[in-house]
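Researcher: Next entry in the queue.
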Amino acid sequence: MKMKDLYADERPREKMIDKGVGSLSHAELLAILLRTGTGKMNAVEVGHELLKSAEGKLNGIAAMSLEALCRIEGIGPGKATAITAAFELGRRTASEHIIPEKVPISSPRAVFRTMMPLLRGLDHEECWVLFLNRANYILGKEKMSSGGFSATIVDTKAILHRAIEKKAAGIILIHNHPSGNARPGQADIRQTDILRKALATCEIQMIDHVIIAEDNYYSFADEKLMSEKF
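Model: Structure for this entry, 230 residues:
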């Protein structure tokens, strides 16, 4: 059935205008991004197919690459980029409001709440750094590298350079594990030690290294793998 053949209150755009965005289902919201369907399916039905391919989870769609999205019937490069952009805007919006700027980072849980919206659902690893002053207030957060499914680069020189530029008293390293297992590998432990020692030469403390894997995290400080805890 084509969108024009649906009753007005069943069409996503008209329904949103009449009843508000909260009244729309996941598939209807996706249909607004998709705009059009195919000869066999309307945009809402394509939205349902997209959800089905991600086991009904929006996080699953957020983690899909452009190539994977384009394998869904009715989705080409233009629609795939619109969907990817929408989820990235969602991540960025969420990250702006997790912890107020004037609240210090006081625990690994606070790090997790701050960074989870940026890292959850990614299909690749990213390395981020929180730069802190002596009171653990955030001076800034930056993505330092982006890698593959199972590894990313920890650029010790680049992190040290940015920490000095920002006059940071300490840093927290964060990266994600798309596999869902937050435990560090030997490479994670080795790179953490190298970075900690490099920062110490400039009297900058490496406060923690937090690995985020979907809804859980691993803190080097909690596991006593850092010289000092929070």
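Model: The mean pLDDT is 87.
Researcher: Noted, moving on.
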